[in-house]
Amino acid sequence: MGGRVEEPAPGSVATGGAPPSTPGPVRRSRDVPLLVARARDGDPRAVARLITLVESGDTLLPEIAAALAPFAGRARVVGLTGSPGVGKSTTTNELVRALRARGHRVGVLAVDPSSPFTGGAILGDRVRMQDHATDPGVYIRSMSSRGHLGGLSAATPQAVRVLEGAGCDVVLVETVGVGQAEVEVASLADTTLVLLAPGMGDAIQAVKAGILEIADIFVVNKADRDGADATVRDIQGNLALGERGPGQWRPQVVRTVAARAEGIDDLVAALDKHRTWLVEHDELRRRREARAAAEVEAIALGALRARIGSLRDGTQLAALAAKVAEGTLDPYTAADELLAQLGS
Hints:
44% of the residues lie in helices and 12% in strands. Strands 1-4-3-5-2-6-7-8 form an eight-stranded mixed β-sheet, with helices on both faces. The termini are far apart. It has helices at 32-40, 44-55, 61-68, 88-101, 124-127, 156-165, 202-205, 209-214, 228-241, 264-280, 283-311, 316-326, 331-343, and strands spanning 13-15, 76-82, 106-112, 138-144, 170-174, 191-196, 217-220, 252-255. The chain is globular. By secondary structure, the chain is an alpha/beta fold. It is built from 13 helices and eight strands.
């Protein structure tokens, strides 16, 4: 798996190590069994093609999901979130280095904010991970958020499945970095890292409910700066206020200076400790079942929205809307009638 991959999806970039000597006709292929087989063999072009099809919402998506289903749950999924400038990409880069030293195959999905005009992304995350561009055991994909809220791309869950199918032992998912609303990553990851930095107001942000509740590990990056001790104390103090039952996980607080690779070993050790807790308390199974439930629900809701959208071209929705507007029908009854029509 690896190599600079030709023609990634618009607004995204994929890289890794050297491609196989006979890559084959995968660049425009729609042969799902071939693409999955090639991805399993480590062909980065096949991985890129599958993610491109996933991102574009191609009609092949159900077939791709079915082909990848037997490989689900084989990778550790680690989410990284935090405000812009805390060092998420640099930390991700160093985590990749540490995991590769253990012999793990690593996939990275780095979600970047997209332009509201073109849909493209700056892809700054990808620029900071050039160190691994030629490593065949690393696959990096920058994905444009394309307006999706929550710090991820709508295609991220299926992209994770592609990387699992491609044999990644660990998949790192880095969010956009837009602030306090980035809690969606917790529903996707086995372990969620929340990165903070001293001097950026993050000690206050960390006490806010969403961020505090999704973090399995707090990473105080740039810990060589003034105020790092105060940031750690604030986090620990607020964690002490939380109510936890016997055996519940207490989020770890780790100091790092990712730009100098300091504290990364401690961070990997915290990840291992959390993984052990997940397995011992059957939390890993629970989280993955909750993730699958959310994924199924999102697909079902998407299909329902598409069917409702199709009604706009007909007369049913317009007729119901007219009755609601003139006051002869309430909106809840109209919605019930609409759902009944969808089910018929």
